[in-house]
From TrEMBL:
Residue ranges occupied by any UDP-glucose/GDP-mannose dehydrogenase dimerisation domain in the UniProt entry: 177-273
Protein name: UDP-glucose 6-dehydrogenase
Organism superkingdom: Bacteria
Record CDD domains: CE4_NodB_like_5s_6s
One Gene Ontology biological process: carbohydrate metabolic process
Keyword Aminoacyl-tRNA synthetase: no
Record lineage: Bacteria, Pseudomonadati, Campylobacterota, Epsilonproteobacteria, Campylobacterales
Alphabetical list of Pfam families matching this protein: Polysacc_deac_1, UDPG_MGDP_dh
Keywords, ordered alphabetically: Oxidoreductase
Gene3D superfamilies in the cross-refs: Glycoside hydrolase/deacetylase (3.20.20.370), N-(1-d-carboxylethyl)-l-norvaline Dehydrogenase, domain 2 (1.10.1040.10), NAD(P)-binding Rossmann-like Domain (3.40.50.720)
GO MF term (any one): oxidoreductase activity, acting on the CH-OH group of donors, NAD or NADP as acceptor
Amino acid sequence: MDKSKEKIGIIGYGYVGRAFYEFFKNHFEVFAYDNNPTLKNDFSYLQDSMDFIENVSLVLVCVPTNALPNGCVDMSAVHQVLENIKQEKLVLIKSSIPPLSTESLSKKYPHLKLVCSPEYIGESSYYLPPPYDFDKEVVKTPYFIFGGRDNDCSAIIKFFKKVAGPTKEYIKTTRSNAEVCKYMENSFFATKITFCNEFEKICKTFGADYDVVRELWLKDPRITKTHTLIMNEDKDYCFGGKCLPKDLDGIITQSFKYGYEANFLKSVRDSNKNLRNDALKPHILCFHRIAYKEAISPIYFERKMAIGLLRLEQYIESYLQRGYKFGSIKQCLDEPKKYFCLSFDDGFKEHLEIAKILQNQYNAKKESLIFSINVNNALNNTLCGMDLLYYLIDKGKIREIFEYFKLDLIPSTLNNIEVLKQHYIKQDSKSLCKFYETFKADLSHIFLDSKKLKELANYGLIASHALFHRDLTQHKAQSKEEILESKQILEQLLDTKIDIFCYPEGKNDKELQDFVEEAGFTFALSIKHIHSQYGIGRRVAKL
């Protein structure tokens, strides 16, 4: 330990932690720690514990703050670090944290002098000229932002000035300003990337060359060149990585939590997901309810689970006008620019009439119409998946359902439905049976019965959609029994082999894919696409 040098501690040794180790190491004595023991193999100087913290003047928190499944930022790693700092200490948080987090952390850890600072070290591998070249080396950053109390910011700036020198800009601001600006920047980059990828598709639609259009567009000096190239055309489009997706999720979720719905950013996120995944998918369209003669609950439309017959016809005609033909799943996989097919989930009563219309109007082949049947819906009128929840919500029983599951209501009805869905589909079959017995309802009026299902088999291929319409990645032993039982029931009823399985909610993993193959299915339909006939992505119709 060099007593002549001031000491700095870095917690977290990913991209950011390593960059700051390089930034500080020649001017201070720097200690670094990461809770991933395998990193010690590559970086022998990493400490075995955080014991050094009591001897350092400044602690940098560079731990990951990933997105949780609900979109919230996972702050657990930040808390683990701060909980281990027992005495008064100057702490700079370089991890991306949601607005108001530093304020909240300061109240929980009042002995710490917390300052947050957005970081711009990136994952990109291509060359950037000055002044954009600070994404790899901290010392090249033209400005540094510090959000916190004035005295604390000034104390940290002294450390930075010793390395970065007098030509940089050192900006002191509030904690919230510093927190929001990082999310604003990454959200803008995400928007710009999505915008350019969208226009690449538009160029293809009109026979224009995106690279040429881009150069013409960039003649306007008000537009900068960064984030305008289309990367990974042979793989995923748009943006991925560790920063943009989770930061976009984070600011959307945090804003909603505090009363604002960021609809524009939500559309950017949705567009990115669609562009990335749709680039790989065959043209197998996914539909649920089709409004034809019978009235359909408005919830289905609000949840984007229903369209009118005219809209369905518009989809079909748009494909036919572009030269596509009705084809089988195999044809759609083998020649994705030539064939398309339609899939209809859950066995709703109107599907039979729709099948007749499609065959009469478009001469649609039987193998180009796939009807995924949830066996308990169609044959037993029990455990009717999300449809039971929709029915009960229509009857004003949403509060009763939340109380049953011991969940907390939030102001938005549609978001309450999503909360219920995510909880409901993760239940095991026994719990779902108990729920059905508690809230029993007759939904036979919206589903095909066995007689109509047999008739439907004359017009399209019948696929198994399991029994309970739950997430099959949960409670795997039950899931496997359910897959087999649903196949056996349908084959016995229809006296034909069922070759297609459709994962409820599109939820699947490698173990389920392997089991579906072992069970004797030829294809398995999902939402997200992988290069396997047991993970075939479908294009959810934009409703």
